[in-house]
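Good day; I would like, with your permission, to put a structural problem before you. What I wish to show you is a protein chain and, alongside it, a tokenised description of its three-dimensional fold. Thank you for your consideration; the sequence and its tokens are set out here:
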Amino acid sequence: MELIIREDKHALGKAAGKDAADLIRRAISEKGQANIILATGTSQFQTLEQLIAEKDIDWSKVVMFHLDEYIGLPLSHPASFRKYLQERFLAKVPALKAAYLINGEGDAELERQRLNALIAQYPIDVALVGIGENGHLAFNDPPADFETTSPYLIVSLDEKCRLQQMGEGWFGSLAEVPAQAISMSVRQIMLSKHIICSVPDKRKAQAIKDSVERPVSPAYPASILQGHASCGLYLDEASASLLEAVKN
């Protein structure tokens, strides 16, 4: 894991987006196609904006997978991650070769099986992810399952995770936040050749400290990124503020 610390979320997003673009271009150059994973949420705003703004990416040679989605939430809901990706990414890169979004409105187990079969055909070159306030990676809340080899899981969301979603303004109350989601598993994320992890904001500082400085443990799901061969952790000064290397 490499730490990349920038002044604020805008500089963070610019750096992460540029580096993601370089990796996508490299994958296309080397094998004719790039397979990517995109995360959602407020932490990804600036990174995705920069990625979209990058020139000379042949999006017709890019296949995108979706990281996670609530179960039972309609596409029309402001918090729908399918809606997020359709509006913030897919509408702006219409030439994309393929986009496999998670549909949480129907039979969740059938959808999980569909996604598992699909992603098995596309080894991931670049995964864009974030880290939650509770240290989760995708919707793998603590204690996360580090052992399952299933690419996608049906997971229950803990209260801290659901409070974060409400606090970010996606829902009006805790009761409105779905209790379950379809999430990419930790081991599937770790199979990605490269990981770009964007985590701005002071409210993530403790999760970052736990993820970077504590031993790898399911109690701190994102700590597993310490062992990835090519993971860039992009922080701003606020999210990095509790790290010992920064304080000293």
